[in-house]
Amino acid sequence: MNDNDNLIPQPKSRFLRIKCLNCGAEQIVFGCATVEVRCFVCDKQLVQSTGGKARILTKISDVLS
Fold first, then answer.
1. Can you give the pTM of this predicted structure?
2. Contact at 8 Å (CB) between 24 and 46?
3. What binding partners and quaternary form does the record give (predicted)?
């Protein structure tokens, strides 16, 4: 491990692959989404903006790096 590894900040948010519980469609969203995200297929609300970290209202399939 290098001393420079501690100097480079790591991001606190990630992209998430989420799956709609209503129709099964998958989408990729940002973990700190600033807008409401709805399913492309059935229009169900999947993500709610909170001003910081987004509130995920459905199942998270994968965390992308």
1. 0.76
2. no
3. Part of the 30S ribosomal subunit.
